Amino acid sequence: MLNLQFQVNLEADNSYSITDTRELLGKEETLLLLEELSSPLNLSNGTVGIILAAGHGKRIKSEKSKMLHEIWGVPTVLRVRQALEQGLGKSSQLIVVGVKAEEVARSVGKKENLKFVFQEEQIGTGDAVCIAMNNLEESEVDYDVFIVPGDMGLIDGDTISGFKDSFKNSNADMTVLTGQYAGNPENNQYGRIIRVPKKLSDGSSAGSLEGEIVEIIEHKDILAMSFDEPFELNHKDKKFHLTKEELINISEFNTGVFGFKAKVLNRYLRKITTDNVQGELYVTDLIKIFNENKLIVRAANATDSKLVEGFNVKSTLREMEAIARERVYEKLKDVITIKDRKDFFIADEVVEHILDLDSSGNSGDLLIHKGVYLGPDVHLSAGVEICDNCHLTGEVHLGRNVHISERVVMSSYPGQVIKIGDGTTVLNGNELKGRISIGTDCLIESRVYITGSDEYPINIGNEVHLRGVSYIFGSVIESGVKITHSVIKRKHVKYISSKEQDGEVVKLRYIIPKPEGEDAVKDL
User: Fold this and answer.
1) Which domain range does residue 511 map to?
2) 109-136 pLDDT, tens digit each
3) Distances from the Cα of 359 to the Cα of 352, 353, 379, angstroms
4) Do 515 and 388 share a structural domain?
5) 405 and 353 in one domain?
6) Are 397 and 434 within one domain?
7) Which residue of 174, 415, 423, 485 is surrounded by the most CB atoms within 10 Å?
8) What three-state secondary structure class fits 52?
9) Cα 267 to Cα 286: distance, rounded to the nearest angstrom
């Protein structure tokens, strides 16, 4: 329990309520957790990444934080953090959290050089960046600051690295990463990148100013404009105008990824105002502010616009998942056989494991059927075949030429391992859970359930045959044993040959433990 004391100034109307106290307690607990999960930052490396992960995302229509929705099995905020780590190299990271702050922070966990900061009220990206910068100590080094939205679940280290290089090589005070929208402009809800056109309002040429970034106009602000009156813009004393239709049809969009010099960012960050339809503080307004103060603003265009899209609705989330699946398929299509490119899941860690196998010449004849799910700790070998709708999670090791038939479930808790030896077959619908070791060339027929706990693991030898409706818990089964229609709980099953049966192995059948609570059961 927290021992918290609050000094409450009761107003004359006694309006301070129990609800207010609970909110204060909740906020205090959140701040304590964020502090616990945060690590000291080292600004000497000259690079800081800020992840904006405070929003809820009302349009996603979910009780879960938008940042915790998964792209290819990983929460989006965690994918963004990993991309920053890979793309920026040695750097410090701040994650701005707000709605569901504790859940978001726990999903990322405590990392070196990572700090969580709290945005209590979600009033825009400009406010979130301001909160993040307030949590950075002053440094004599003018470090670089890179800002990335927490819902950019497809972004990768290469994209971040390329943007970082563009920012450094441009000698700009601010750089924005842009994408090209390929769909119907009416469906483009991103902020539009406004550049100086070839011709100005008076018909004269824009000259060397042509193509310079003027500002970003948010989609909602464009919708609020009139079709009858053109939107007037002024850039370095040169005027031009764009109609509402022209604004809507601009395909270049703001990804929400920015690069800044820290000292310049701090100097102008508080000049942002809420003069927009939503009444929020937008970090995008800094483009106009920087231009007005004769600072250098540039853009870098993403090589793959699909990788820099965020999501607000479930349909976009599904599209991003499909893109992630296709990327995995492209990596593996000539390494293993995937029966249905639109219906499978292979975690990133398993993909890398397969590619490592391929580089060492040990991935031959791997076959993945429709609807297979392979979690991050699954280890495969050459000749493995996993059939339709199998689900493997936890640490699972499959030996060479293992065959897993349809609808098999394998799962283990952290610290537990399921090991299946070379040449073993597990047939339809079986369930294997917990700490299990199965030897080579075994046959586990349908409707067999095997469970091993930490205290009572399963150890099955070589060439064991399990068949019929059987349940095996916490037992040792020696090599060569045949078992059918049995419930075996915490037993050691030995291999015994029968001289009367010409050396055939004695089969074990109908072994059931003594029932517990027998006194409570009576015949009708």
Assistant:
1) 333-520
2) 999 999 999 999 989 999 999 999 999 8
3) 11, 10, 15
4) yes
5) yes
6) yes
7) 174
8) strand
9) 11
